[in-house]
Amino acid sequence: FFKNFGVGIYRVNYPQSMLDALIPGIQDHTLSPQDRFGIQTDVYALARSGHINYVDYLRLLRHAYKHEDNLTVWKSILKQLTDLNSIIDYAHIDNIKKYFQTYICDLLSNIYNKLEWDPLPNEGLQAAMLRDIILIQMGINGHNKTREEAHKRFQILLNSNNQNHHSINPNIRAGIYLTVAKTGNQEIFEQLKSLYRKADTQEESIRLLTALCRFDDEMIQRQALEYIWNRNEVRKQDHLKAFVSLASHNRKGCEITWKYMQDNWNKIEDIYGEHDTHLIHFVEHVPSHFVTEERAEEVRKFHIDHPNPLLDRPVKKVLEQINIRRLVLERHEHTIHQFLIT
Fold first, then answer.
1. SS3 261
2. pLDDT tens figures, 123-158
3. Residues 6 or more apart whose Cβ sits within 8 Å of residue 64
4. Between the CA of residue 276 and those of 237, 239, 318, what are the distances in Å?
5. CA pair distance 168, 205, nearest whole angstrom
6. Model pLDDT for residues 170-202, shown as the tens digit of each residue
7. Which of 42, 95, 179, 285 could cross-link to 244 by cystine, CB 3.0-4.6 Å?
8. pLDDT tens readout for residues 224-254
């Protein structure tokens, strides 16, 4: 009864009895990675569209996917959970965010313990890439052991001289930088900035620039915003990556970047040109994180005030995104909270 991938794009609405029957095959991997990937994406899509409750998805992950070890499956799961996490940023129930972060860390605990920080003997590229995304998620979601280790390795990196600069495996650097930034102070911001200026590869530059935009401290977020538009420091082609990174970090980062966009749109258009597709990415990846009709109205007004045919479809897409996210919060916040605390 599995769909034939690559033949058509459609969703399967599994009855609960069928999902329950599939769980053992997901747990022991007798089902292929392709099927394990497809089942959870279908359930997530159905929850997001309002056909089922998000709790069905979260429960499925908890019961069936705790021993998952496939990179593609985890990338998909973490993309969905990051999406939901960013909606929960706007929740009215105070402690729901903390409970959700605990849920994520618990879900990842087995694969985290299996991979930890350092390469395993004879491991392949997939394991290295998986370690990278698992460490990032554990670090930014408040896992104490990950945070302690990230700070320890960050100090090693800072203290090493240029000859020893590569003592920290590049595959775990994003996890280190994003984790120390998450609850970092002004000193860490300056240290990351110093490393950014000395970065000797484009890959390392982007890792560090992204981390500079991932502080929770609002004062530092405003400094990051100013820094990423400093053309003496940041290359033109990297402004957008950094700006989107700040917008996607949390609610406050999104508000700061959205206000900047509204106040400086003419300047942004001058930098890129009014027919440049970069403008589409600014519109699609900043206000799309909002969840209220008031914010949707601001997006409509922004487009009226800055008419550009290039942006007609992206603005429509963003308005749909905001509406979907608003409905998710209205319909599911209380049931998700109940699930997380029981």
1. helix
2. 889 999 999 999 999 999 999 999 999 999 999 999
3. 22, 23, 26, 27, 40
4. 12, 14, 18
5. 15
6. 899 999 999 999 999 999 999 999 999 999 899
7. 285
8. 999 999 999 999 889 999 999 999 999 999 9
Decide: 282 and 261 in contact? Cβ < 8 Å: yes
Both tokens assigned to 54: 């998000």
Tokens of 166: 């590569």
Q: Which residue has the tokens 């990423």?
A: 228
Global model pTM greater than 0.85: yes
Do the beta carbons of residue 14 and residue 52 sit within 8 Å? Answer: no
DSSP letters, 92-112, are SSTTHHHHHHHHHHHHHHHHH
- Report yes or no: 150 and 180 within 8 Å, Cβ to Cβ: yes
Q: How confident is the model at residue 205 (pLDDT cuts 50, 70, 90)?
A: very high
Structure tokens that stand for 113 in this block:
């313990």
Residue among 171, 236, 165, 231 at smallest CA distance from 200: 165
Identify which of 67, 65, 17 has the alpha carbon closest to the alpha carbon of residue 40.
Answer: 65
